[in-house]
Amino acid sequence: MTKLKYLVMIDDNFHFMDESERYSSGNYTTYEEAVEKCKQIVDEFLEDAINPEDSAGSLYTCWLMYGENPFIIGETVGDFSSTDYTKLRCEKLTGTILN
């Protein structure tokens, strides 16, 4: 039986620093699977939140206020950052540069 090595946890940005609002989004056998789950969580929020007039900055601010901030707990974790990923996705989705 394969041991699940990576846990994806989610902090709710609306309840910043309130660990009682933290929850799990599942266990994964590889770090890459956990990263893909984190990206999916961010992408789903951004795709639901975006408006045609949004800039990268306004979409990113929306995520900072109301989005889900996934992170990975595991044996050895890489350098995935949901914040960095969100910034890149906001720029790509809006076609503007984050200032």
Secondary structure layout:
Blueprint: E1 6-12, E2 23-28, H1 31-49, H2 56-66, E3 68-74, H3 82-94
Antiparallel strand pairs: 1-2, 1-3
Helix pairs in contact: 1-3, 2-3
Q: What would you say this structure looks like, in words?
A:
- There is one protein chain.
- This protein has 99 residues and is of the alpha+beta class.
- It has three helices and three strands; from the N terminus they run ββααβα.
- 43% of the residues lie in helices and 20% in strands.
- The protein starts with 5 loop residues before the first strand and ends in a 5-residue tail after the last helix.
- The mean pLDDT is 94.
Quick tags:
single chain; 99 residues; alpha+beta; three-stranded antiparallel β-sheet; 3 helices; 3 strands
Summarize the structure.
By secondary structure, the protein is an alpha+beta fold. Helix content is 43%, strand content 20%.
Q: Output the number of helix runs.
A: 3
**Going across the major beta sheet, what is the strand order?**
2-1-3
Mean pLDDT: 94
Number of domains: 1
Runs in which pLDDT lies below 50 for 5 or more consecutive residues are none
Please write the string of helix (H) and strand (E) elements.
EEHHEH
